[in-house]
Amino acid sequence: MKRLIDVVGSLLLLVLLSPVLIVVAVLVRVKLGSPVLFRQVRPGFGARPFTIVKFRTMAVPATGAHVAKDAERLSPFGRRLRATSLDELPELWNVLRGEMSLVGPRPLLMAYLDRYSPEQARRHEVRPGLTGWAQVNGRNAATWEERLRLDVWYVDNRSLALDLRILVRTVRLVFGREGIAAPGEATMPEFRGGDGPRGG
User: Fold this and answer.
1) pTM (2 d.p.)
2) To the nearest 10°, the Cα dihedral for 39, 149, 3, 9?
3) Which of 21, 142, 172, 182 has the fewest CB atoms found within 10 Å of its own CB?
4) Phi-psi region at 64: left, alpha or beta (left = phi > 0; alpha = psi -120 to 50)
C-alpha cells in the first residue's frame, strides 16, 4: 500500500506541480547558470546507492578557486529555494522510480555509512524519504544524535497513519520555514560519528 501511495502521489504531484518545476528550472538557469539539476549518489534502501536529483542551489566554484564552505557557495536565490523546499521537488522522480518514498529517513551521504553505529544504520531498513519524522521534529536544527534516533524510531513505528501525520506537519513547517539550517551552515555540519556536532 505504501508503494502504491508513493507512485500515485509522486505522479500526481509531478503533473500538478509541472508549471512550478518549469518556472524554478528557468530561474535556476538564469540565476545560477548551468547545470540546472544537482545530482549526487546517496544510500537508499539497504544502503544501496542511487542518484538523487535536486535543483541546484550553490554556485559552481571557478577553476583554481579556493574550496569554499557550502554556506559560502549558497546564493541568496539558492537560500530562498531551500527555505521553501522547492529545490527538493525533482526528488519526486526518485520516488516514482522506487528509489525513495514520500516519507522516510532523509538520504544522507555515502561517506557517512561507516560512521553510523549499528543502531543508527537501521535507518536504511526502509526507503529514504522526501520528508521524515526527523524533519518534522527539528529539521536541520536538531543534533545528529537526535536526528538519527528519530529516524530509527520511524523505522520501528512506521504506518500509513504516521506517514499522513508527517506529510501534514511537513506542509506546515515548510510554510513556517522552521529549522532550515544549523547556524553558520548551508544545511548542516558534517556527521563525524558518535554524537557528532549539531546538525540535521
Assistant:
1) 0.83
2) -70
3) 172
4) left
Q: Cα(184)–Cα(176) distance, rounded to whole angstroms?
A: 20
182-196 pLDDT, tens per residue?
555 556 778 888 644
- How far is 122 from 142, CA to CA, in rounded Å? 19
Cell of 124: 536504511
Residue 41 has, within 13 A of its CA and on its CB side, a CA count of 7
- DSSP letter string over 120-169? GGGGGGS--EEE-TTTTTTGGGSBHHHHHHHHHHHHHH--HHHHHHHHHH
Evaluate whether 139 touches 200 at the Cβ level (below 8 Å).
Answer: yes
* CA distance linking residue 109 with residue 131, whole number of Å: 16
Site of grid cell 500538478: 16
Is residue 14 classed as helix, strand or coil in its secondary structure? helix
**Cα–Cα dist 200/148, whole Å:** 9
Closest among 194, 85, 70, 71 to 144, alpha carbons compared: 194
